[in-house]
Amino acid sequence: MKFKDQIIAITGASSGIGKQAAVDFSYNGAKTVILISRNIMKLNQVKKELNPHCNVEIYTCDISKKKMVYEVGQNIMEKMGAIDILVNNAGIGIYGKVIDQTIEDIEKVTSTNYLGMIYFTKIFLPSMINNKRGHIVNVASLAASFGIPCMAAYCGSKFAMLGFSESLSYELKNTNVGVTVVSPIAVKTNFFDNESFKGKMPHKLGYVLEPKIVSKAILRAAYSKRLEIVVPFFVRSAVWLKHTFPYLINPIVSSSFKE
Ligand SMILES: NC(=O)c1ccc[n+]([C@@H]2O[C@H](COP(=O)([O-])OP(=O)(O)OC[C@H]3O[C@@H](n4cnc5c(N)ncnc54)[C@H](OP(=O)(O)O)[C@@H]3O)[C@@H](O)[C@H]2O)c1
After folding, report:
1. What's the whole-model pTM score?
2. Structural domain boundaries in the chain
3. What is the pLDDT of residues 31-66, one digit of tens each?
4. Ligand 1 pocket mutation, candidates 20, 137, 154, 191, criterion most atoms within 8 A of CB
5. Burial 9-32 (b: 16+ CB within 10 A, else e)
6. 3.30.479.30, 1.10.510.10, 3.40.50.720, 3.30.1330.40: CATH of 7-255
């Protein structure tokens, strides 16, 4: 019951990793889990899977729209007073070369994955600092450390998420408020259902995680002092290799992806 009496807000809670995290927080003592996404029907379905003893609040919000996030954030603050844990999880990927993608596609990925995380952080951070309690968990990706061909906007948004979180973590020193990034490899979710991936992904992605594994890392991140948790942990060695020997590793990464 690690999260006893805690209020947890999760973006992208209608599916995949966010949905699993909502279920797991509810069964680990959370007092209230706040589910956020664009799709009210899916959120109502997710609610049925949560611990019946947990209070569940649902908010529809397109997190790429600043005005909408501020309105939803204000409503949450008025109802809850403050929250203990914010999980910035909602995200999308659109596959394609920079030269072929529309600027709107690039903006959509950036505003959802990166700006959406900032909008929600700005809403909830002041009360966390005032209360001297809270944790922000940002779900990035291994793509926060590796540039993948045809995923420039996505990788850019995740690199940015990691950089933003690192800076913020230094600013939060001595506040008792923390920020931790969770960076998984590929996960079995609806993420790759986007039209742009059709016919572009290898039939077998190799080692693919169950959402449950990533959710476990999110729950661990919510009381961790670490900046980044890579999932699975041994993939951190690949990140180390890339930073230490980029001239060896980068050609391997670039040749393993097809256009
Ligand atoms: N799957 C992977 O291989 C993988 C690997 C590494 C990292 N990740 C990251 O994990 C996170 C969760 O993705 P997932 O794999 O669980 O994919 P998913 O099953 O497609 O879930 C994505 C979630 O984000 C929400 N969402 C998307 N755009 C939104 C918007 N504009 N406003 C509000 N909610 C929005 C979706 O909800 P609605 O459609 O209901 O709005 C959905 O709940 C993402 O940040 C992704 O980058 C995924």
Report:
1. 0.97
2. 7-255
3. 999 999 999 999 999 999 999 999 999 999 999 999
4. 191
5. bbbbbbbbbbbbbbbbbbebebbb
6. 3.40.50.720
